[in-house]
From TrEMBL:
Name of the protein described by the UniProt record: cysteine synthase
Organism the protein comes from: Olea europaea subsp. europaea
Similarity annotation: Belongs to the cysteine synthase/cystathionine beta-synthase family.
Transmembrane helix among keywords: yes
Transmembrane regions: 6-24
Pfam families: PALP
Keywords, in A-Z order: Membrane, Pyridoxal phosphate, Transferase, Transmembrane, Transmembrane helix
EC top class named in words: transferase
Catalyses which reaction(s): O-acetyl-L-serine + hydrogen sulfide = L-cysteine + acetate
Named cofactor requirement(s): pyridoxal 5'-phosphate
């Protein structure tokens, strides 16, 4: 299936404000020098993040005649590509004074970013408070609790609702700052804050720390910079500059935008594509310039529909991070393709991948089919299947949504 291309060279209409915000803050030094200097000053757990291997996915490469390479981000200490983002967000917040040493980092996350923040925050002397939708795989909240994070599970609602998990996380940071301010004035506030399960928990995560900081992974351009300054340069070095295409799905948009922009600056002929899951409006935005109808817009839905089995990718709004992406086209992926791909890679390559990684591999095959044999294509292996056992790798759950895998080869993508 050929990609649907957008009108104009740059598919996504870039936000001038977002671009200026990035360039004013981070173009004064070359990305390679900055990355090298930053890593040399890190130690302990933080020094182990990044520089992940770029592996050849043998079965997909052999089937398509292309070199399909996956950036093995599941090998980061926190188990996902979001480790890079967590480090960048916390370091920039500490440098700017937005986060005080000993403060609490709050975030609304479907799982991976929250786990990464909870993993790296202690390395900076900070704590983590996470708000997640209650429909994500339960093992993600169990991991967070084991890591020592305070976890709030809330009902999935529109981003425009005050109780959307992102908006709740933003409020928690404000509450932590208010409490820290009162403590500085030697006052005590004994009132319980709505949303916390007990006064003891409130005190443990808010009262005992020096203010709060909302990570804001969707709109914080530290997300973009983590990949523009880190992941992108690593890929370029690992392929020796010999690259034809890059493809990935988008949630916050930071990975896709940071890598695509870096690669395009190195070689404008490199094609960059989006692979979009069901229920997401980004495919329409990239290919048609219109994300959704008025009725489908976030804030107008009457309920949270079952859109996709994949977690952490797909969205129905444009984030500041995604606006910085430079794309040449987009593909749609389906849930059954992602499920089938995950089982195919496990059987043929020994790769136990999460749902977004599987969707990215679907995208890599689609790009290979569009470009033809002889091309080098890179995608991101975001996380492993360890966090997806109760849904994506649960036979009963898949059967409920008629997603039971049955393919023996790649026939689900038109390859035999």
């Amino acid at each position: 299936m050929a990609p649907v291309r957008a009108a104009g060279t740059v598919v996504v209409a870039l936000s001038i404000g977002a671009i200026l915000s990035y360039f004013l803050r981070s173009r004064s030094k070359s990305s390679s020098t900055k990355t090298s200097n930053r890593r040399s000053s890190r130690n302990g757990l933080i020094a182990a993040i990044g520089n992940t291997p770029l592996i050849r996915i043998n079965s997909l490469s052999d089937a398509t005649g292309c070199e399909i390479l996956g950036k093995a981000e599941f090998l980061n200490p926190g188990g996902s590509v979001k480790d890079r983002v967590a480090v960048k967000i916390i370091e920039e917040a500490l440098q700017s004074g937005s986060l005080a040493p000993g403060g609490v980092v709050t975030e609304g996350s479907a799982g991976s970013t929250a786990i990464s923040l909870a993993t790296v925050a202690p390395a900076y002397g900070c704590k983590c408070h996470v708000v997640i939708p209650d429909d994500v795989a339960i093992e993600k909240s169990q991991i967070l609790e084991a890591l020592g994070a305070m976890v709030e599970r809330v009902k999935p609602v529109s981003i425009t609702h005050r109780d959307h998990y992102v908006n709740v996380a933003r409020r928690r940071a404000l509450e932590a700052n208010e409490i820290a301010s009162k403590r500085q004035n030697n006052t005590k506030d004994g009132n319980q804050i709505n949303g916390y399960t007990s006064e003891k928990e409130t005190q443990s995560i808010l009262y005992e720390h020096k203010g709060g900081f909302f990570a804001d992974q969707f709109e914080n351009l530290a997300n973009f910079r983590a990949h523009y300054e880190g992941t992108g340069p690593e890929i370029w070095e690992q392929v020796g500059g010999n690259l034809d295409a890059f493809v990935a799905a988008a949630g916050t948009g930071g990975t896709l935008s940071g890598i695509s922009r870096f690669l395009k600056e190195k070689n404008s002929s490199i094609k960059c594509f989006l692979i979009d899951p069901p229920g997401s409006g980004l495919f329409n935005k990239v290919t048609r310039g219109v994300m959704y109808t008025r009725e489908e817009a976030e804030g107008h839905r009457l309920k949270n529909p079952f859109d996709t089995i994949t977690e952490g990718i797909g969205i129905n709004r444009l984030t500041k991070n995604f606006k910085l992406a430079e794309l040449d086209g987009a593909f749609r992926g389906t849930d059954i393709e992602a499920v089938e791909m995950s089982r195919y890679l496990l059987k043929n390559d020994g790769l136990f991948l999460g749902s977004s990684s599987a969707m990215n591999c679907v995208g890599a095959v689609r790009v290979a089919q569009a470009l033809g044999p002889g091309h080098t294509i890179v995608t991101i292996l975001c996380d492993s299947g360890m966090r997806h056992l109760t849904k994506f790798y649960n036979a009963q759950y898949l059967s409920r949504y008629r997603l039971t895998p049955s393919a023996t080869r790649l026939e689900f993508l038109g390859l035999d």
